[in-house]
Design a protein that fits this description.
This is YfiH family protein. This protein has helices spanning about 55-70, 95-110, 150, 155-165, 190-200, 215-225; strands at about 10, 15, 25-30, 80, 90, 115, 120-125, 130-135, 140-145, 175-180, 230-235, 260-265. The chain has about 270 residues and is an alpha+beta fold. It has a single domain, classed as CNF1/YfiH-like putative cysteine hydrolases. A hairpin with a 2-residue loop joins strand 1 (about 10) and strand 2 (about 15).
Length: about 270
């Protein structure tokens, strides 16, 4: 695969990680934290609505991110779930106004992955250390939030299966793009939790005696679900070490905004 996740682009002060390629016709990006209107701990392109920032600032930041990506549908065509560290997947399979409204309502009730098989709808999930995953396939895509609880439940693999069901694609036809997240060398956890991951995902889950490699676990889940290892691309960026570009809940002791994974397909 090409290294599109190492390319930076954007506009209007917003920086996007993800290049300008459109795999399977999907425009996707991981946002950086500069270019928004938020101040203080949320400075400046905070896209999360549940971390204490002014709601008007969040809305303007989301508008700017969508504009930088070239999405013309606006905030009314944006699906942003209330993330609950579970494994519920919302599927968007029609793009008329009523269907989009229903999808937004279901997502607001709680979900950690959105599968979309239609054009003219954008999907955004927010992060500050957890693992962002964008899956693309012919005729569809998914955006996934995989924290440690969701990773244990293999939410990325569940989203892949749902994407293939809804789009008619086979797992080997899909691609996965893993965004910036807390990487193994920075993610110290309890011995008990680490042993749970090793028992479920094998020795690759263990970055060191007390450090968990969530990204490796996500990759393992996807490969076990039929996605070729060669079809998975990552950024190699650990959020606690890059707080000039991304938010990190752990490094900033909980006082921070959220960057996002965003995707859409044009009609």
């Amino acid at each position: 695969m090409c290294s599109m996740l190492r390319e930076r682009h954007g506009g209007h002060g917003v920086t996007l990680l993800g290049g300008t390629d459109r795999p399977s016709g999907v425009t996707l990006a991981f946002t950086e934290r500069a270019g928004g209107v938020s101040t203080g701990a949320w400075s400046s392109l905070n896209l999360g609505s549940a971390c204490g920032d002014d709601s008007a600032h969040v809305a303007e930041n989301r508008r700017r991110a969508l504009e930088a990506m070239g999405f013309a549908g606006g905030l009314g065509r944006l699906v942003v779930p209330r993330q609950v560290h579970g494994d519920h997947v919302v599927c968007v399979t029609a793009n008329d106004d009523a269907s989009v409204a229903r999808a937004r309502e279901e997502a607001a009730a709680g979900a950690d992955a959105i599968v979309c098989t239609v054009s003219d709808v954008a999907v955004m999930l927010c992060f500050a250390d957890c693992v962002p995953v964008v899956l693309t396939a012919p005729d569809g895509y998914a955006v996934v939030h995989s924290g440690w609880r969701g990773t244990l439940r293999r939410i990325a693999a569940t989203a892949l299966a749902r994407l293939c069901e809804r789009s008619g694609a086979a797992p080997q036809d899909a691609r996965a793009y893993i965004g910036p997240h807390i990487m193994g060398e920075d993610y110290e956890v309890s011995a008990e939790l680490l042993d749970r991951f090793v028992g479920k995902f094998g020795p690759r889950a263990r970055a060191s005696e007390r450090h968990l490699d969530l990204g490796a676990c996500v990759r393992t889940a996807l490969v076990d679900a039929g996605l070729p290892q060669s079809a998975i691309e990552g950024t190699g960026i650990s959020t606690p070490r890059a707080t000039d570009r991304f938010y990190s809940y752990r490094a900033e002791r909980g006082a921070c905004g959220r960057h996002a994974a965003v995707a859409f397909r044009e009609g």
